[in-house]
Design a protein that fits this description.
Elements lengths: L9 E6 L4 E6 L4 E3 L8 H10 L8 E8 L19 H16 L5 H8 L10 E5 L6 H9 L9 E3 L2 E7 L2
Antiparallel strand pairs: 1-2, 2-3, 4-5, 4-7, 6-7
């Protein structure tokens, strides 16, 4: 493993709540967001680049969800009672897909205003998740994508989605 360039007793850890690295000294129990004094910053940069956080078997993805009247919960933060048909939801999502694939807008940016999921406020980012944590159809597609890749339209009990694997 690459030397992180930290002073003796310090290690890099990862905050699950903030999804960011932090620095921890096991003997003093001190934790901090900034590297400790006397850190070799160049070595730390190399270490961080070579050791991106990948929780065991987990990936990170964002999605844009369009619900319809037959979704398992046909309401959202945008709309208290969703009445559109599944076919109408698919047509709406096809329009979003065209804008994303053309480079006109990113999935994350569009999700902030158009997704029916509460993850919209985070650009559709669902955070890290493993197998068995999402609906089967969603999970199969998300795990099959490469980082950065956007899926075709995916149907689940929640509605219709475009999924982008983030990491």
């Amino acid at each position: 493993m690459t030397d992180p360039g930290l002073p003796a007793g310090w290690e890099v850890r990862h905050s699950n709540s903030k999804n960011l690295p932090y620095f921890f000294n096991a003997s003093s129990k001190e934790s901090r967001w900034e590297p400790p004094e006397d850190t070799d910053v160049e070595k730390l940069k190399v270490y961080m680049a070579q050791n991106p956080r990948k929780p065991d078997g987990k990936i990170r993805a964002a999605h844009l969800l369009v619900k319809h009247k037959d979704s398992r919960r046909p309401s959202s933060w945008k709309e208290p009672n969703i009445t559109r048909t599944k076919e109408e939801a698919i047509e709406i999502l096809k329009g979003y897909e065209t804008s994303i694939r053309s480079g006109e807008v990113s999935l994350g940016h569009l999700a902030q205003t158009e997704s029916d999921c509460s993850s919209a406020k985070k650009g559709g980012d669902l955070g890290p998740f493993g197998k068995g944590e999402m609906q089967k159809e969603f999970e199969e597609v998300a795990f099959g994508l490469e980082p950065g890749q956007v899926s075709n339209i995916v149907e689940t009990a929640s509605g219709v989605h475009l999924i982008q694997r983030l990491e």
